[in-house]
């Protein structure tokens, strides 16, 4: 393995300008999945992937998720590309996932350069939409295969691939395909690797073993039959906004403590291993202050802040539908207001129990108000939290690969948000899933001036290859 | 006086179809002051008034308020028409006010008929935009003059008139003219009469002696430097929405009780005379329930409901600027939210003291939250409450005129909203101001299918004339 990896690393270094040109080629395809006018570009990008797989000798099939409705149009969904490279029963089989669609981007949004023209700046950053999210990582896998082929080296594992074109727009149709292929295209899979997130900071690689879930609620309070003038009716009716303010104020404290009884009961206790994983992390309060462009953090140390971000639940009030929301002054008593809030959940919380706690509590609190208005709570969508064991061989292999490439032990991180496909793979295949990021915290994935550092792209390509070699040595 | 009024009433009955045709003529001029494309029609309507004054031998001058900015255009403001009819030093001088502009109206809004074509339906309702607000009342004054002229009867008082064309759009420029003319065009005025409001119900006339004031606030809470993703940052920052919900919940109870210390201190006590004015009122809880299209009233009797509407202050939460307000689910932590609320004030509350109480209380409550966010409270606009003595001869005359025309004692009402010109006249001229409505509660002044009952128009014309005769007999 050591000799093979030395050759492989040297080949990657040698071909790095080819890889950058390849990234330039795909960044130039504006595959924005949430924009009707760019839907053909998403298909062009899907075709580019298929052309590359053909060139590399990867077997592939496409799955057609059908059509969907968007902005008044019925649109064809882009293909889900399933690849298979190697079918040796003596080898482990690894499923890798990536998405070939991107977020919208317009120069006018504040980009320093044209978003769909890859530019390498003086800091060695490859700037362009999709560079880090998620075209760079997809190319990482393809580059690794190509480098092995140039060296006449066989890959130490069988690969399965799942590349979709709707991730930035709800991954429509993907879950059904994964479930359907669990005993089909994916039947031999031993482990899953997703490269679609980021280092915790900017200097140290990480591997990610947990994500929070979400339960998103609408809380509708209805009073008068129509909006009323506050001069004529103020002081005579129970106002829905007043009731909503009371209920909102009973959900969470300004310090972030959730006040709903029962919500904290199922939060998994902090283990010693997890506690030990925090101190080495590449993170401090100023990283957080820079990210939020302010200093209004709840905690006075970065470890509690990270625990607040990813291993404890949180509750955020997002806003109100139906109230006056424009600039200026309007003297309205809104007739019906819909408060929006969500709870980020962590293991071992389950959506059904969260719902039960939320609904009971809100109804109880509303009854105390003595209001003649009516209340209705509804969960708009829910996703379960996810956590994997970082002691699984899949993680041990990834950590060893990081040490091999970067000469440093990786951070063991979770994330506060959700990557729903993670849980789908885990539940459908019942295999360990690993998140192995290529880019950095500062890449600006959904923002202007998205970038992927050249070093992250090139060392990341090495990392993905090394991970496959390390995994091939594990027994599980 | 009795003989003169008998003749006058008979003449009004005889000419009623002429009056309806005249109303049809002015409703056909779509003098919408808040719509750039209709501004020429407002001028056409102003010219129509001047033509009528000329025909009736009323001296008049116009005051030009200049220009204003609206929707990106610099527009000429419509003329304020000042009329003078009679200059006999032996007579009382009465100033009457009306506005010749109207609210917007489109058939598509849900009108049963074309809004700018007056239609008389089978219920005897004259349906059309401006019929009741406020072209009918303006014509009432002109009809009364015409009827006297036809009869060869001299008016028993001198009249001064103030007709504006911007009432539905902030009465821009009017206050300055009133203040400037206090010792000019209006210098001999003994009493003021405004016919621009409505009966309390649908069956009994009223005269109106009080209006609430308003103090409108924005309450800005600022946290992170930009909107944040609730997955990534929920649980790590003090969220402005949470703080705002807490402050909102401390302002007013679901029963409408204002919680701000000091706010209730200056509320004038209920006098015996005022208390006695409530039982005869044409109002009950079902009138209120119909008006709000629901039954969520705070009080279980109509007298407390009316006191809540017009003689006690109220506080309404209107909405939030900067939070998520659309349909659907967005997982945002808004960086800066601006809560909007207002207090309807009553005598003897003063805006400066209201401001002081609000600002101190919010800052005190915010300090208790232990939040690292910042708060800022600002009063966007304030208007004082107004109340007149209904024992003044101006009111006694109006009440006698109501009894003469309708054979019933009028309701003595206040209103919960504001008619700012009322206070301007009172403060600038230092004379008693009376609100003497022509239309009914159900006229739908700012709504679709605005109407003025034929009987309200014709009996209302009699009322305005009778009021002038009754006033001429008073000494004050």
UniProtKB/TrEMBL annotation, chains A, B:
Mn(2+) 2 binds at residues 99, 133, 196. Binds 2 manganese ions per subunit. Mn(2+) 1 binds at residues 133, 168, 446. Substrate binds at residues 196, 229, 331, 344, 418, 446. Its cofactor is Mn(2+). Residues 209-367 form the Peptidase M20 dimerisation domain. The keyword Cell membrane does not apply. CDD domains: M20_dipept_like_CNDP. The record marks 229 as: Important for catalytic activity. The active site is at 101, 167 (proton acceptor). Keywords: Hydrolase, Manganese, Metal-binding, Metalloprotease, Protease. It comes from the Eukaryota. Coiled coil: none annotated. Belongs to the peptidase M20A family. This is Peptidase M20 dimerisation domain-containing protein. It comes from Linnemannia schmuckeri. The lineage of its organism: Eukaryota, Fungi, Fungi incertae sedis, Mucoromycota, Mortierellomycotina.
């Amino acid at each position: 393995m050591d000799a093979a990896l030395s050759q492989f690393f040297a080949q990657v270094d040698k071909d790095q300008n080819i890889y950058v040109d390849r990234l330039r080629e795909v960044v130039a395809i504006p595959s924005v999945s949430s924009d009707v006018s760019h839907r053909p570009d998403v298909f062009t990008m899907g075709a580019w992937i298929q052309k590359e797989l053909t060139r590399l000798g990867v077997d592939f099939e496409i799955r057609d998720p059908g059509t969907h409705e968007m902005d008044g149009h019925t649109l064809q969904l882009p293909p889900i590309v399933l690849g298979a490279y190697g079918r040796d029963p003596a080898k482990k089989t690894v499923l890798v996932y990536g998405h070939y669609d991107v977020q919208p981007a317009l120069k006018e949004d504040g980009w320093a350069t044209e978003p769909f023209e890859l530019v390498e700046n003086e800091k060695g950053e490859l700037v362009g939409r999709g560079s880090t999210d998620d075209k760079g990582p997809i190319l990482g896998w393809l580059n690794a295969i190509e480098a092995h082929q140039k060296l006449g080296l066989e890959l130490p594992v069988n690969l399965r691939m799942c590349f979709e074109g709707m991730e930035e727009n709800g991954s429509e149709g993907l879950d059904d395909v994964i479930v359907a292929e669990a005993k089909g295209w994916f039947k031999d899979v031993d482990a899953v690797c997703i490269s679609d997130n980021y280092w915790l900071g900017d200097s140290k690689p990480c591997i990610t073993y947990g994500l929070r879930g979400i339960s998103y609620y609408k809380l509708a309070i209805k009073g008068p039959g129509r909006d009323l003038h506050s001069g004529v009716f103020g002081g005579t009716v129970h106002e829905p906004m007043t009731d909503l303010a009371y209920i909102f104020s009973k959900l969470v404290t300004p310090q972030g403590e959730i006040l709903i009884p029962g919500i904290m009961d199922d939060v998994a206790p902090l283990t010693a291993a997890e506690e030990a994983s925090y101190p080495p992390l590449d993170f401090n309060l100023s990283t957080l202050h820079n990210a939020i462009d302010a200093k209004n953090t709840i905690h006075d140390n970065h470890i509690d802040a990270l625990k607040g971000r990813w291993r404890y639940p949180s509750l955020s009030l997002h806003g109100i539908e139906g109230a006056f929301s424009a600039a200026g002054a309007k003297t309205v008593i809104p007739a019906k207001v819909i408060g929006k809030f969500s709870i980020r959940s962590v293991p071992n919380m389950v959506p059904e129990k969260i719902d039960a706690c939320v609904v009971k509590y809100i109804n109880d609190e509303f009854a105390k108000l003595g209001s003649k208005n009516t209340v209705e709570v509804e969960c708009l969508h829910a996703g379960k939290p996810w956590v994997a064991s970082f002691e699984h061989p899949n993680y041990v292999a990834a950590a060893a690969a990081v040490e091999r490439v970067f000469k440093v032990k990786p951070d063991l991180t979770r994330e506060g948000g959700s990557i729903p496909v993670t849980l789908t793979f885990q539940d459908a295949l019942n295999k360990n899933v690993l998140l192995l990021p290529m880019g950095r915290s500062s890449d600006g994935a959904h923002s202007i001036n998205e970038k992927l550092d050249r070093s992250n792209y090139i060392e990341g390509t090495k990392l993905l290859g090394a991970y496959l070699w390390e995994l091939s040595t594990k027994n599980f």
